[in-house]
Give the backbone structure.
Amino acid sequence: MQHTLSVTVEDKPGVLARVSAMFSNRGFNIHSLAVGPTNVEGRSRITLVVDAPELEQLKKQLHKLVNVIKVQELEPSETLEAEVMLVRVSCDPASRGEVGDTAGLFAARMIDLSPKSMTLEISGTPDHLASFLDHVRPYGIIELVKSGRVAMKKKSDVSTSLIGGGTR
Amino acid sequence: MKKQPFTGSNSLLSSLEHEGVEMIFGIPGGAILPAYDPLLDSPIRHILARHEQGAGHMAEGYAMATGRVGVAMTTSGPGATNLITPLQNAKMDSTPLVAITGQVGTAAIGSDAFQEAYTTGLAMHCTKHSYLVTDADELPNVIHEAFHLASTGRPGPVLVDIPKDVLNQPTHWYEPSLTGLPGYKPTREGHPKQINAAIDLIESSERPVLYVGGGVINAGASTELAEFAVAVNAPVVTTLMARGAFPDDHPLALGMSGMHGTYPATTAIQKADVLVSLGARFDDRVTGKVDAFAPHAKVIHVDVDPAEIGKVRKAEVPIVGDARLILRALLDRVLSLRDAADAPTRQEWFDQLDSWRKSHPLSYDQDPDGPIKTQHFIERLHALTNGEAVVTAGVGQHQMWVSQFWKFSRPRSWINSGGLGTMGFAVPAAIGAKAARPDDLVYALDGDGCFQMTFQELITAATEDIPVKVAVFNNGGYGMVKQWQSLFYEGRISATSLGTTIPDYPNLAEAMGCVGLRVTHADQIDVTIEKSLSVNDRPVVVEVVTDPEEMCFPMIPAGGSNDDIAMGPEDL
């Protein structure tokens, strides 16, 4: 089963290596990984999608790494997540219009065009990207690259309940 | 003369002195050279090992004998790679260690420079944490953090890799702080709700067992353990790492459990209804087949490392924290509910344990005219030293026999390689222990196979005036491996015979500046031991020529259920 973990770490050299080394050492499987700075100086966020039957031991082993500050498991129902994908679709001037229309429906952006292909950039939830791929696959996918997944916890339900509580 | 600037090397030595370091075990070399200069003017004693692995094990022996952080210092490249075994050993046995390694200059890192190795990368899997210091101004904080990490929470090895130009960089020393560890906050106090739940379970138990691991020794909790065991009236099993945490002559003591444990200890756990694990980690040598381990027991698991809880065995009552504080809290809770004298008697349980003690004792047969049994020598040494020696061991049959037949009475009197099973540990570890506790008798009990891996450190012992004593049980081979070949490979003995005549151990010992003795007959054991004890100005090596056919029992074959204990080869 896939789980999404948001791991806050110290922004220091070698931290990502320590995290990935722990995964290989302990036999855990990483499905996707994205790392980048946060709004707090000196802190980075690693978003991990992992395949694991249960997370408890994995979370504890992450916590055991000295540079790991916080480990948060993100439940699908309360998580905002996004991936970025670049996809080069085979198309000639005749089919260009259809591919462009599909891209428009999915809010994908054309970033490169050649006589035989169109390269599109799309971001969104994994489902959104998968659905887009289903629609352009028939034209022929020449090349594809996808980022790791980034995620954070949703806050909107909290504000809704506050409104419901009559605080306004 | 121009005043020398204060450099990273000076800062390193100032930091080590600030941490209270009294000795360093090490070997110099190109990249660490700058640090060895201010060492000349420092009150810190340097003990010059003959191999970096030896330096690392000495630092471990020092740490295990004292509870303080052991320090090893080596150069880059091979100096660092030779430290890998001690680092992993210290990680597995939770021994506080700080390793300082030199590194090639910052500009040369990554260029495959002379004596370059990616030390922090190599150390990633075998340390609790590691540092590459790129600015000498960081040294006071980094060294302080390294000692803090090594000695708190679950203790372990920390490596600090320092490039040569950083050691030469002008800098200043300042009072260090721990502000750089935002993610490191080990839990010390047990949760009160869990403490109460644990006591409820223990009080209502009919067949409790306290399963005690090395964490109790690390936490300095032997006194609390003894009070607690009596207060709840529960028998005590000690793991290999915990030998000495609870006195073997105590009426509640069952000895060691597991693969070569005593029948009563292993079987008590199998029949227990409540198993209280204190600083132990359900190692495979203890559990045997995990699914068949302690099948009737509810588990209370006390550990300072949360990742140990639930790793191997589900715990009904997990308690994270320091074993000493938790034992104190458990004791307070019991005594708040009733008087100490009102502990449940559990007569049936203790009668059962006694009957197992009588029906399945540890045994061996020393024929007065036959070859020496290692077990017999161990018992005679215990008798002639009143059990007051600090003993170290290598790995294999002799290690198991020491654990079985030496009656331990105090913590930190048993120093061995448990988790990693590092052959060759005994001699250097004994040197570290003796350097730390010069007034105590330190006796390494070693096998011939182990001895041949690290004996050159006796040159260190002789030249550094560290008069350890070593008994080498010479059965002419790798006894434990040979035992497995005999039992599980139809007696096909492959590459486990070393021969009994080469080397000539007493001559080898004399050549290294030690006194060399040999004993071949049982009736000469006492006089030889007395002779070894009478020498105090030099190390002593006693070659004990032992029975090559003797096997170590009880035994549970690897992966077998702990219900199936073989008391001898006929049971396999």
Remarks:
- Chain A touches chain B at residues 9-10, 13-14, 17-18, 21, 25, 56-57, 60-61, 63-70 (CB under 8 Å).
- The longest strand of chain A covers residues 79-90.
- Strands of chain A lie at 2-10, 29-37, 43-51, 68-74, 79-90, 109-114, 117-124, 141-146, 150-153.
